[in-house]
Amino acid sequence: MSKCESCIVREFNALKSLTREELMRVSACKTAKIFRKGHVIFEEGETLNGVYCVKSGVCKLTKMSENGKDQVVKLVVKGGLLGKRSLVTEQKTNLSAVALNDMEMCFVPKSEIMDDLNKNPKFTMDVLKTMAEDLKDSDESLVNMAQKSVKRRMAEILMYIHDNFGTDDDGYLSIVLSREDYASIVGTATESAIRILSQFKKEDIISTSGKRIKIEDYHSLKWME
Amino acid sequence: MSKCESCIVREFNALKSLTREELMRVSACKTAKIFRKGHVIFEEGETLNGVYCVKSGVCKLTKMSENGKDQVVKLVVKGGLLGKRSLVTEQKTNLSAVALNDMEMCFVPKSEIMDDLNKNPKFTMDVLKTMAEDLKDSDESLVNMAQKSVKRRMAEILMYIHDNFGTDDDGYLSIVLSREDYASIVGTATESAIRILSQFKKEDIISTSGKRIKIEDYHSLKWME
DNA sequence: AATAAAATATGATTTTTGTCAGGTTTTTTT
DNA sequence: AAAAAAACCTGACAAAAATCATATTTTATT
């Protein structure tokens, strides 16, 4: 198995239902692409004709609000897929994708996958499962956004990043975000995000080194009112 | 075609891909149920073994937040389906469903649909499409919740109900919600919801009669800062 | 119809969050 | 290495929203 195959398979378990031949074919027509930090992979309103699979690096999926502020909807890392919706609908994408650091991605044209999607019910069912999971996560996010304070939301995104994407050798969160990104995930003003992180620092809940953040007291984050 | 068939078909267009025979079979094993206003149809954490299709009435899908407040995630009316996710995953439902007025529903056991879902790729593909649409709506809601003021969100839910569920003969919104429900949709305190609606009344943007609300000045709602 | 209960309403106050304005530090470019 | 740009930080204040307390109205129950 090529490296890309295993990459897609690992996280997007929908692809695990493809037969060996199907998988080989999909894998064969992939196109590797490199995106530099800050690069826009696609933008809200574009028509996507395939999915991107993340081989390395991290990107954010954002949506522009009417007030002109970007809202981060999701972070996507190694093995994650961008543009899933494009497989299913002809509609333009509702999200933008921006690389948060240098990224390697595979692009798989829609045409290659559609055939399997139409003929292999098990495969379609598995795609359905991942989408149902996304939907559940989305409900969760909505409730968090609606019912929790900015401070609580900040605490949770720190723990989320810690738990899902891990830390580097020095114990710093392995995903490095700007304060503006934090604000845009939590859904608050940049100054408010900065202020809260400063407060956490004062209370020795986190420490920082430039943009990098280390969680010093997970317990306090978890049980913060 | 029986009444129920056409009901399911009308809104859940996923079912339109079923063959005539498949549809007849599904339709045959449905169970009609009545739920009174306030009745809990199912609760977060329950295992669902089928989907409910709304024949008449309205219900809310809610999720409990850690702070103990319910958040309304979605309103479902005639033709809408509850428990879609249960078709796809073995997991317990992440939402509760509560009737907002008297409701008539059809229950279709999972076992009946699963067969079609596994064998009819076009059907599965259509379910996939509705789920992708749900996901898009969900992204939209998240951004609204994160970036807009409570007042703006209240204005939007009023317009949403007006546009999607219409008005009665007197011009009042045909879905009648308690102030607490409004608060729980908008994601705010009940008092805040009441206060904002009172303010709209003072500004002659809406008028009320008991719980019922009539939009008097749609334009003001739309262009409210 | 009287009573009780629930929902709605409003004032007063506090807490949270946003905005503006001015800094400093870090990063990038020249 | 210097200059410019971007990101970060903090204070002061304003605005938004939550909370608490207490009426009033509506709805349900006896």
UniProtKB/TrEMBL annotation, chains A, B:
Keywords: DNA-binding, Transcription, Transcription regulation. GO terms for cellular component: cytosol. It holds the Pfam family HTH_Crp_2. Gene3D superfamilies: Jelly Rolls, Winged helix-like DNA-binding domain superfamily/Winged helix DNA-binding domain. Residues 148-219 form the HTH crp-type domain. Transmembrane segments: none annotated. Residues 14-105 form the Cyclic nucleotide-binding domain. The keyword Membrane does not apply. InterPro entries: cNMP-bd_dom, cNMP-bd_dom_sf, Env_Response_Regulators, HTH_CRP, RmlC-like_jellyroll, WH-like_DNA-bd_sf, WH_DNA-bd_sf. The keyword Transcription regulation applies. One of its GO terms (molecular function) is DNA binding. This is Crp/Fnr family transcriptional regulator.
